[in-house]
Every structure is written in structure tokens, then in C-alpha cells.
Amino acid sequence: MQAKPPFRAEQVGSLLRPESLAQLRARARRGEVDGPTLRAAEDRAVRDAVQRQQDIGLQAVTDGEFRRDWWHLDFLSRLDSVTLKHNEGEKFKIAGQSEQPPIPTVTGRIGCSRPIMVEDFRFLKSVTTHTPKMTIPSPSMLHLRGGRAAIDRAVYPDLEAFWADVAAAYRQAIAHLAAAGCRYLQLDDVTFAYLCDPRIQQNCRAATRR
Predict the structure, then answer these.
(1) What is the pLDDT of residues 160-204, one digit of tens each?
(2) CA angle 110, 111, 113 (to 5 degrees)
(3) What is the CATH number of the domain that holds 159?
């Protein structure tokens, strides 16, 4: 019988990718591995991660976000009219990390015309006896890094309309997950931590004005 949240202890949701899976994903990006082969490897990694979470006593388990290249961009880029643009600006300095995330860019009206990551959730639900927890990025992540410059002014001359469409798209995406049986959804918002840094505060103010 599944316990119900809130739980005394649980994980954020993103787990360290197995090195073998990371290497296979890199090969898939180069066209050396096909989709079914990558998916099968992800399935195995998710099963292993689920078993480890259950073995240590966690009541809520995630898929570790093993099917994503980036914890936030894989979800955001599947919203209608969101594309990923190469980051031409200042790069994040992360020890041991040379690859830099692209910038989500809005080129049209935001929407959610098709389910996002629902099949990922269904697989997770099928391999756990505990509470399956899905994680998605907060809506703020669509604006944080690119700011006003990453949102087409011809489409959204007023940011109030942009945020209204983003909210509606998220409601639809969440409804799709709920229809698949998701009852525990975590929205990750790292912007709260970012905004403790005066430099980030200044960058956000400047990005909003552009």
C-alpha cells in the first residue's frame, strides 16, 4: 500500500546519471545510437534507480530525470513555440562541466497542444510499488535566463499576455500528467536561490528591460 505525501524525507528528483547512460546519450546525439536502443538503456537505469530508492526506504520515487539532457530544457522545449537557442552570452562556470545549456526562446504563442513526459511518468508508475513523483521546471525558468530579449515582441508586446499563456500551458501539461495518474508533482524553481546573488539580481533587472 502506498503511503501518502507529505513524507518526512525525500529527494529533489534529479539523480546522478550513470556514466554508461551519459556516454550512450552522447553517442545518440552524434547519431551513433538509435532511439529504441537509448530508450531501453534508460528503462534499465530507471528501474535500477527506483529499486535503490525503495531499498533505502524512500516513499516517493522518481525516474532520476534520466531521460533528459537538461533538467529543465527538455520540458520547456516541448511547449508550443519554444525553441532552444545557442547561448552567446556569459556562461555558467561549473566545475567538471564544459557543456553549456542553450537559452529557451519564445517565437510564437505559448501553449501545450500535446502531452509532455506523460509516457515517462507511465513507465515510472509501472515499475514502482511506492508513490511515483514527477518533476518539471517552474514557469519562471522560461524567462530567467533569456529575459525579455528571448520573447518575441511581435507576439508578446505585453508580458502580462505572455505569463497568462504560460500559466494556461502549464495547467494543460499538468492536466495531462494527472490524467495519466500522477498525483505527486514537483515544480523545481532554482530562481529562488539565484536571486540571493546581487549579480544575478542585476542581470535579471537588465534582462527584463531589454
Answers:
(1) 999 999 999 999 999 999 999 999 999 998 877 877 888 878 877
(2) 150
(3) 3.20.20.210
The sign of the dihedral angle between the CA atoms of 104, 43, 122, 55 is negative
CA dist., res. 162 & res. 144, Å (int)? 14
On whether residue 7 sits in a domain, the answer given is no
User: Cell numbers 551513433 correspond to what residue?
Assistant: 32
Reduce the DSSP state of residue 70 to 3 states and report it.
Answer: coil
Structural domain boundaries enclosing 124: 19-209
Domain count of the chain? 1
Residue 57 lies in a domain: yes
- Cell numbers at residue 9, please? 524525507
Amino acid letter, 145: R
Q: Which three cell numbers stand for residue 48?
A: 535500477
Please indicate, yes or no, if residue 1 is contained in any of the structural domains: no
The C-alpha cell of 17 is what? 546519471
The answer to whether residue 143 is domain-embedded is yes
Sign for the pseudo-dihedral over CA of 169, 36, 127, 17? negative
Query: How would you class 130 by CB atoms within 10 Å of its CB: exposed for 0-12, middle for 13-18, buried for 19 or more?
Result: middle
Using one digit for the tens of pLDDT, what is the confidence trace for 63-97? Answer: 999 999 999 999 999 999 999 998 765 555 555 55
